[in-house]
């Protein structure tokens, strides 16, 4: 079959035990068996470490995609790096984030199998020699890549797809071949340098940090993976290791490579290098093959997230790849110049090489010219990609650009994390929705069914009680389980506007203080997420949230009407607990900044209502469920653009809105940081004078919209009816649908429903 290779520097897998039991249909049997041994399965599940090999959305998407590719019976492989240390563990000390190394392999990992027989060399540094026999890349340093495999099994069809993670290992003669070293001990110690490549995940989300070690990681995964892909392509018969195929004509018909963002972009020059230098394929033919094989997914429009590597770094680390990129860029620019004669500015804008004091390689441009398909991850994002980020490229080749709205796997994000809700649904419409989430539409028939309304509300209340108990046990926090659970969990970033949430919390607090006797909908505001260790403002935001909580949670006037909780160390396994318990999901990024978001979808399918801007997949969620069934507020993309042209002036809002002014003055004066009154000066200064994400511009609409949330929450029956309508309309957001679209419209394969016989049955 055609094989699909999903290349990603991140796979945010979480825990595997429960997921495997769910997919084998063994959960109840195991539960019972363990119970009979006098043990508790849930206690056992809590012992497993999360595989935290990702930062957030991009890495979790890759994990959902692996699940869906197996479910759809595709011959797909995930390829990435086996980081020794995943995303750091977050501790909150005195209100500040402190990072701790995530030594997730400390007790070993039962879900992986080492494959030492697939040890492969990866070359770095060296120089390029142009000989009559062709180009040679010589005098390189060679750490090898060690292969580890983990499988993900589909629930329905016994398909097991592999995820192959590479780990760096120094060859035995590393640094010993330098005859003059003489210091054997030093040479052996230097092996660490080679093995550092797979030591640690870079903890940045939506931010590019141009470090040499990171570029090494990017080439490392690409070089090892392409060797594996080509080995598999050459052995025509499954399980046979003797190379049979030598002609690469059919390569794009047998191999599809999907690049998860620009991080594996080096696949393009590396495949060219192998075809031209090693396999002696003609240059133009090789370029044709490469373009037909690769496809690129763009994940962000934030300029600070785009990868732009210094040419000088390439020159040193990957000299042959730099030559290839120059040659590809020349071909590309010749074509543009022929189509737009004299348009020098267009050539500058479209070049893969950015001129300037430091020449840089724009990896996104490389991906666009080297792929046959480029996609965004939600309709609004794909439109922005076409109309602004890659506008010139879209004009050149409009047929390349597509949209593939993200999705989430309903196995983990409904069945596994919310079995109570899954049961209530299955009781009404059967179990087909598990592999065809669009069947949730059938729930529309039960919106006015009193028993169903009661059952859905009951499951939510049970989930809330369970999560409240967990918080009390883990963090000694007591919360009111009948309050509205108002949740914003995601990476901490200015564009995600956790600060807007803070301003709402302060405003609610001030309203209670000024009118203590007024009856109010009680809320527990929970905010969770990690900040990149080098991101000062994000760390200040965490400190602000914890400081606001400190004041509000200890004010006797407030009682249990309002609590602000920071959820420490937010990760996949914590998401599985908090999402099923949420009443309100906050998706409040500035319109045009969140490419898609996937947490929004998890909350929707788990029976929370969404308060959000018209950004990312929120737009499509509102379209599916009806805008009146979400709490949509604030500027649209057009309004943001208009405000940019006009010039955003934060002070104008500060002067005009008394509640906003009061909140900002309190933050500024040290009301929330009495021991260090100047603590939040930077935050206030940013909000007042250089806020790229226009928090104040949406404040008024947000506060008003939150008032509507309160009104509805007072009427539990109407609230639950809206919840049911949201769940019923969430079917589009299954990653099965997303992968079906990738398969048909990018990879050119048809998903198969064929059930592979289980290993205990004879095959035909």
Automatic annotation (TrEMBL):
Single GO term (MF): pyridoxal phosphate binding
GO cellular component: cytoplasm
Species assigned in the record: Corythaeola cristata
Name of the protein in its database record: Alpha-1,4 glucan phosphorylase
Family named by the database record: Belongs to the glycogen phosphorylase family.
Reactions mediated catalytically: [(1->4)-alpha-D-glucosyl](n) + phosphate = [(1->4)-alpha-D-glucosyl](n-1) + alpha-D-glucose 1-phosphate
NCBIfam families: P_ylase (TIGR02093)
EC code(s) of this entry: 2.4.1.1
């Amino acid at each position: 079959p055609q094989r699909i290779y999903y290349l990603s520097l991140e796979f945010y897998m979480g825990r595997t035990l429960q997921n495997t039991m769910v997919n084998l249909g063994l959960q109840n049997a195991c539960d019972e068996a363990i119970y009979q041994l006098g043990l508790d399965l849930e206690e056992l599940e809590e012992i497993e470490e999360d595989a935290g090999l990702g930062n957030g959305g991009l890495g979790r998407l890759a994990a959902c995609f692996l699940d869906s590719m197996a479910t759809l019976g595709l011959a797909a492989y995930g390829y990435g790096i086996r980081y020794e240390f995943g995303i750091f563990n977050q501790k909150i000390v005195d209100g500040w984030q402190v990072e701790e190394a995530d030594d997730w392999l400390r007790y070993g990992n039962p879900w992986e199998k080492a494959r030492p027989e697939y040890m492969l060399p990866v070359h770095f540094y060296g120089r390029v020699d142009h000989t009559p026999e062709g180009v040679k890349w010589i005098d390189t340093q060679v750490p090898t890549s060690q292969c580890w495999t983990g499988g993900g099994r589909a629930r329905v069809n016994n398909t097991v797809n592999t995820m192959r993670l590479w780990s760096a290992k120094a060859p035995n003669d590393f640094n010993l071949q330098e005859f003059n070293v003489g210091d054997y001990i030093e040479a052996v110690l230097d092996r660490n340098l080679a093995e550092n490549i797979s030591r640690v995940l870079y903890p940045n989300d939506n931010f590019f940090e141009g470090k040499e070690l990171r570029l090494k990681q990017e080439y490392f995964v690409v070089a090892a993976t392409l060797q594996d892909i080509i080995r598999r392509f050459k052995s025509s018969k499954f399980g046979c290791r003797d190379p049979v195929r030598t002609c690469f004509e059919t390569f794009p018909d047998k191999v599809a490579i999907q690049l998860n963002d620009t991080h594996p972009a080096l696949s393009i020059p590396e495949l060219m290098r192998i075809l031209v230098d090693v396999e002696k394929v003609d240059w133009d033919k090789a370029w044709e093959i490469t373009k037909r094989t690769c496809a690129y997914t763009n994940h962000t429009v934030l300029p600070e997230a785009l990868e732009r590597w210094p040419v000088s770094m390439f020159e040193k680390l990957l000299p042959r790849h730099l030559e290839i990129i120059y040659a590809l860029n020349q071909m590309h620019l010749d074509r543009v110049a022929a189509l737009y004669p004299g348009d020098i500015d267009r050539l500058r804008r479209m070049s893969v090489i950015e001129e300037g004091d430091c020449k840089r390689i724009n990896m996104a441009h490389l991906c666009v010219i080297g792929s046959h398909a480029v996609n965004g991850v939600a309709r609004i994002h794909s439109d922005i990609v076409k109309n602004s980020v890659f506008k010139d490229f879209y004009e050149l080749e409009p047929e390349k650009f597509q949209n593939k709205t993200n999705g989430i796997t309903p196995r983990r994000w409904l069945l596994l994390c919310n079995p109570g809700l899954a049961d209530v649904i299955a009781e009404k419409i059967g179990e087909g929705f598990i592999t065809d989430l669009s069947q949730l539409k059938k729930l529309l028939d039960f919106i006015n069914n009193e028993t169903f309304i009661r059952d859905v509300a009951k499951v939510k209340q049970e989930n809330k009680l369970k999560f409240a108990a967990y918080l009390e046990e883990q963090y000694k926090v007591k919360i009111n389980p009948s309050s509205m659970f108002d949740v914003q969990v995601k990476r901490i970033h200015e564009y995600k506007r956790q600060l807007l949430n803070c301003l709402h919390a302060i405003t609610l607090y001030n309203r209670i203080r000024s009118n203590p006797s007024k009856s109010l909908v009680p809320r527990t505001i929970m905010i969770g997420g990690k900040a990149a260790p080098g991101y000062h403002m994000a760390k200040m935001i965490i400190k602000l949230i914890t400081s606001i909580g400190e004041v509000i949670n200890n004010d006797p006037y407030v009682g249990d009407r309002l609590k602000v909780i920071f959820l420490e160390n937010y990760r996949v396994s914590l998401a599985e607990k908090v999402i099923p318990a949420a009443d309100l999901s906050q998706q409040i990024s500035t319109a045009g900044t969140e490419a898609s978001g996937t947490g929004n979808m998890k909350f929707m399918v788990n029976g929370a209502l969404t308060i959000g801007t018209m950004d990312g997949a929120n737009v499509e969620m509102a379209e599916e469920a009806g805008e009146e069934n979400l709490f949509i507020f604030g500027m649209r993309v057009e309004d943001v653009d208009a405000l940019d042209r006009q010039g955003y002036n934060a002070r104008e809002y500060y002067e005009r809105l008394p509640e906003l002014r009061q909140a900002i003055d309190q933050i500024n004066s040290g009301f929330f940081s009495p021991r260090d009154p100047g603590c939040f000066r930077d935050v206030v200064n940013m909000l007042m004078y250089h806020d790229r994400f226009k928090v104040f511009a949406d404040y008024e609409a947000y506060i008003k919209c939150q008032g509507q949330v309160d009104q509805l929450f007072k009427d539990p029956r109407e609230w639950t009816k809206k919840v049911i309508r949201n769940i019923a309309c969430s079917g589009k957001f299954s990653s099965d649908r997303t992968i079906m679209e990738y398969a048909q419209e990018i990879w050119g394969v048809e998903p198969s429903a064929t059930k592979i016989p289980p290993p205990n049955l004879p095959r035909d």
